[in-house]
Design goal:
Elements: E1 16-18, E2 22-30, E3 33-41, E4 48-50
Antiparallel strand pairs: 1-4, 2-3
Length: about 70
């Protein structure tokens, strides 16, 4: 689950409710083989319902700012 803290997650067998999912079909070809699968995205892990309950606020990973300047000298 993207944007979730490493200490939170879902397990096999959990009932998962997904509000407003965005479903995308992925189609990739590699070394003559075709791989196709569906991906489901939600805006935040807090929008899920796991076993009838919303995840705690601590399930959401804090934002991180990453900067790069490719033209800067090493």
């Amino acid at each position: 689950v993207y944007n979730a803290t490493p200490t939170w997650g879902v397990s096999v067998g959990d009932a998962l409710g997904v509000a407003e999912p965005v479903v995308t079909e992925h189609l990739h070809q590699h070394q003559g083989q075709t791989f196709s699968f569906l991906g489901i995205r939600v805006s935040s892990p807090l929008s899920l319902v796991v076993n009838g309950k919303r995840p705690p606020g601590s399930a959401l990973a804090p934002p991180r700012l990453a900067l790069s300047n490719p033209s800067a000298p090493p």
